[in-house]
Every structure is written in structure tokens, then in C-alpha cells.
Amino acid sequence: MPGLRVRIQPGLSSMNQTAAESGEDRLIARHFRPLVQHPGAFQLEDDAASITPPPGCDLVLTTDAIVAGVHFFPDDPPAAIGNKALRVNISDLAAKGAQPLGFLLALALPADVSEAWLADFAHGLRADADAFECPLLGGDTVRTPGPITICITAIGTVRHGQMVRRTGSMPGDQVVVTGTIGDAALGLLLRKDATCGERLRLSPAQQNEVAARYLRPQPRVAIADLLATHASAAMDVSDGLVGDLAKLCRASKLAAEIEIARVPLSDAARAAVAADPSLLETIVTGGDDYEILATVPGTQLEALRQAAQLRGVAVTAVGTITADRGEPRLLDAAGKPMAFVRPSFSHF
Questions:
Q1: 42 burial class (0-12, 13-18, 19+ CB within 10 angstroms)?
Q2: Residue 67 and residue 239: Cα distance in Å, rounded?
Q3: Total H helices, total E strands in the chain
Q4: Residue 64 in contact with residue 17, Cβ under 8 Å?
Q5: CA gap 178, 185 in Å, rounded
Q6: Mean pLDDT across 319-324
Q7: Prediction pTM value
Q8: Cα 196 to chain center, whole Å?
Q9: 241 alpha-carbon distance from chain centroid
């Protein structure tokens, strides 16, 4: 679909033009054609894109939607919303061991969306499309009586047969995570209550750090190929470490034991938990981390960790896959299983 189509209903906004005035062409040229880099997008002038994967590679496809009031605040910076919309999809590709190739964009916009909002949103998308080498291939734009809804379908490539699925874990594999866990959940708390940072004794720099993690996820595409080489199973952490680990275990028909003390936390998260120990549950269940959760054979762990470190990504072993079936167990400092009121974010 690259003729990025705009379905316009008369009288919805000042952006609406008659068909003869070609408002659609102006909107595309102004905001979205600058994102086009792939020749198969045909400058968004056709009804579909045409792409050929590199020799010996498979295509990997993923799609995620984000909705105002659910995944972002309506008054968040439009450029940051564009960043988040693309990055959450690139995170999925990275977890599968894939490199980005391009993306399709579907926008549902309310009547009062402004030209300035669209320009800033497109600017954020373009910056990340360039940074992650993931150009726009096409899409669609429609009006909606509801909130802004952004759906991106990302396309990546991986060497034939090397996509990392959720189902490959084996008993004895090490459970690892990249980066740190819980910063985005803290950023959301601060976004809802600006006084929260002071109560949690977070410095201004720490508050800015967790706020940025919520606004702009950091997909771990730098180590995608390492996951394809070393990991037996992987997924990104979007709905919370506890809930997403449960999904991975169910897919592999195994279980896991995780030591909570080994879960990597930023200085900000450690300070927050020291001020309010109950926040530990929020940190491991809150979601929006967009780190990678993977299982790795013990013989591969150190090779993965060292190679990832050279690329600026920390990989931490937090537990082990076990042969029994059931929900994963998170153990506290005394070795006792922990229980959580809401183990995972869920829309339903």
C-alpha cells in the first residue's frame, strides 16, 4: 500500500480539500514522502510496495498499534510519539534476531489534529527511520471520532531459518535480560504525578532518565544478530518482565526460576525501591521496558555477554529454565516465591 491514502470526509477540518485540489497529495508530499528511502516504495505513488529480501534471508513481519490515552498521553511531544510508534516495532524485530528493512504506517486521526502536530510527528518518524535504517514503504490515513491511533507494520530480515522464536528454550538454559528493567514504569508514574519523583528521592537527572525511557524506548537492534547466533528463545519486554517471561515459558512448555536480586536495575530504580519497597512489583510487572528477554544455553552465555558489551548493551543472567511446566517463579532474597497482584499489563 504505498499510496499513503487519506480518506477525507467533508467539513472535518481546515485541512480538508476537494479532490480537484489534491489535498491528499499535498499532505503526503509535505509530511511522509521525505521518509521514503527504499526504491520499492515508488515515492508513495502506487498502491503497494515491492521489496526483495537480501539473498539467503527470510522476511520477519511484526505489527503494533499505539493509542492516545492508552500507550501515550495526548499531550506528549508528537515527535516522541512518532519515535515510540516505530521503536516498539523495531524492538520486536530485534528480539527475533532481525534487522529492519522498512515499515508501513496506518494513522487514524481525529478531526482536530493540526498541521503542526503532523509535522512534528513526521519529524520524529523520519529521525528514527534514518537512525534505524527503516524507511517508510507506504500506509493509509483515515479520520476517526476516537483518539489518535497509530499502527505500524515493520518488516525485517534475518538469515534463512535463524529467526529466534519463543519456543526454543531448553531445561538448563540461562534466562537473560538486556539493559535495566522498570525504568519506563517509573517514568509513567512520574508522568502521572510530578511530585512522585521528590517523594521517591530521585534526583532531577534520575527523573529525566526514567521519563525518557517511557517516552522513547531503546530497541536493542544492535545485538539482533547476536541473538540469532546465541539465543534459544527471545521476545521483547513490553508488558512487564514477569508476564512476558510467563508467555515465553508457556510457548516453550517449560518453567523458570528467577532471582529477583539479579534483575538489573538502574540507579534511579534502586533509589525508588529503597524509598518505597512496594515499587519492586511495579518495576517487574509494569511494562514498556522494550528490553530483550532471552534464554541462552550455558555454553553460549559468556560469548553473548561479551559480544553485546562490545556493542554497548549489557546482558544479565537472572535465572534458569526448568524442566517442569507452569508459571515461572520469582524468588525473593530469602529464596521464597513472590506473588504479584497483576503480573502483566493486559488490554483485556
A1: middle
A2: 15
A3: 11, 11
A4: no
A5: 16
A6: 96
A7: 0.89
A8: 25
A9: 13
Q: How far apart are CA 55 and CA 112, in angstroms?
A: 46
Which residues make beta-bridge pairs with 57?
159
Residues 252, 305, single domain; the answer is yes
Identify residue 249 by its one-letter amino acid code.
Answer: C
Q: Which pLDDT value is given to residue 6?
A: 37
Work out the mean pLDDT of the chain and round it to a whole number. 89
Q: What whole-number distance in Å separates Cα of residue 159 and Cα of residue 149?
A: 33
> Under a CB-based contact definition with an 8 Å cutoff, are residues 106 and 137 in contact?
no
Q: What's the grid cell of residue 156?
A: 525485517
- Close Cβ partners of 9 (under 8 Å, ≥ 6 residues apart): 16, 143
Residues 6+ apart with CB under 8 A from 336: none
- Verify that 282 and 134 share a domain, yes or no: no
CATH of the domain at 215: 3.90.650.10
Asked if 217 and 279 sit in the same domain, the reply is yes
What's the number of domains the chain is made of? Answer: 2
